[in-house]
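Listing 4. Sequential folding, example run.
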Amino acid sequence: MTNLATPSRPTLTNWIEIAALGVIWGASFLSVHVALTGFGPLTVAAGRIGIAAATLALLCVLLRLPLPSLHADRRVWRHALGMAVFTNVLPFAVIAWAQQTVQSSFVGITMALVPLFTLVMAHVALPGERLTLPRIAGVLLGLVGVVVLIGLDGLTLTGDPWHALAQLSCVGVTVSYALGSIVTRRCPAVDPVAFSTASLLLAAAMIVPVALAVEGVPHAPPAPALWALAYLGLMPTAFATLILVHVVRSAGPTFLTQTNYQVPVWSVLFGTLLLSEPLPPQFLAALGLILAGLAVSRMARR
């Protein structure tokens, strides 16, 4: 991505932005749950991507910010395609499909695994990103958290196979997000907003035709589902990208990882308080193990 100056000490504004990102992303799983009351899972994924792509494209027009050149920046577009697939199309579609079966809080807890899987992939794909003992310990703690979260029945598929498949799919989504992160970090220098817009436009071009072919045009969805879909497109998919760019430019990418501790907590709170989802004891135990894994893995950076 663009070469950034050495990050300065985080300001009060940066802390407010980080807190906002935690709430915005934490509420996205609640919003998917509501959107599914009026739309199919592919339509939910296509809708949020389409709204976000249109929003950022309009922003680029207003800012007179050109997209990467199709001829001169082919490598950038290849990376944008990778980001579109692994960060948008696959995870959004799978999460929406899985949330027809699993709780929103469950999905939010699994998202805390993303930075742990990223550490493993970065060890192979990125020079200088080596697996140290604290990082290995953090990954192992996170994997134990997955076992506790899903349970032996889910891992061995001895219970409800569709429910277990949905749970395992959520874990698979975190691998997709991690892979998307690696693809993005390997991208040549480019304006982050233009790059995000390009990837969302590619994602929309892929998912919208599929959603229309499989699920058709929605007919009279209820207002709550419409509002939820609008939120998904505008806030966690479009607006959060702009906050993310500002945080990385001003305080650095390491500071941004503070959101990894907040998202699962907010998703559990929203799911429990607003959706009246039950909170099994293993959810809290798994959350503790995964967050402990994140904390241990960060010791290598201090």
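-- end of first protein; second protein begins --
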Amino acid sequence: MTDEALPLAGLKVLDFSQNLPGPYATFLLSCWGADVVKVEPPKGDPGRFMEPFFSMVNRGKRSVVLDLRDAESRPHVEALVRWADVLVEGFRPGVMERLELDYPRAKALNPDLVYCSISAFGQEGPYRTHPGHDLNLQSLAGVSHLERDGKGEPGYSMLPIADLSSSLLAVSGICAARAKGGGAYLDVAMADGVLSWVNVWGLGVDLAGGAKKQLGSGLLVDAITRPLLEFLARAKLYAMPHYGVFRCADDRWISVGIVDEGHFWKALCEELDLGPMKKLPLAARIAAGPALKPVVARRLRGRACDEWLRRFEEIGVPASAVLSPEEAAGHPQVRARGLADARGWMKSPLPGAVHPDTPAPKRGEHTDAILAALTGEAAAPTL
């Protein structure tokens, strides 16, 4: 039952998303009282294989099973779109258009709908259709560059910060759009979220010429993340031979981020001449991880990073180069989305937000004006 005292009580959310970014965003909305209806394919959300993770991010929702490709389901889908105040989807750009559920069609059914698309790289730019998981976005944004192990080799945060940051961006954008009123389209990219977070922690340190702080180190971070890391170890995500950071022939590093997708694994096996392995189910791949991951690493050592990136783009394998925060600021996708200003600082990726051009205020700079406005001595200042 929805608690009417909660701030989003009565908000109706239609959730087409899977795995983590979208489901966590809609879970947060449900925590504020929203009524979330999760639409799953007949076989269910693929994230259901990762319990208790799936239950954790889908609590408080209702589930509807519909085949979005089936004409018989169409009237039900359209009725749900008319019912909803908010629609959240997490497919690669182009999928909802092929399903005839893209924003223009949804808007025709429901002009006041807030439609939020969450994808790896966003709806614009040269990487818009690239596949990508959390690990790949960490590599692109500079996290792997900063997260070095004892040997100085790039790693990755076991906390899925690209997933979670995009969830928070989606929630912020949805709430802002609802406050403004009327329909809206929100383009949320996982890359944008993690880039903005790395900018706060990593890029400023690098530009200042100081020592690069290793993310994920320190007693406070350890205390906060240890329970999650223990869960991830049980989930065996990072034991997968197809999820990790690998050295290339030119001593650059590349992340390969395949989770449960059999078609990605098959394409990787065919490219790395691991043909007999391509039919292994996920459980068998995880069990063989300690022996199989070094084999994958040796094969990836055979070509330069850019060669792999071009080839993986051709065959559709999720992969990203490990970039420093400075390199990330100059990446074609970052430039295409206008995320970095002339200084290389990341703009606010909040959907519908305006990036402030003014610097941070001096201490007490606006005290007099604000206090005067509060006492009626002057018109309220524009902030």
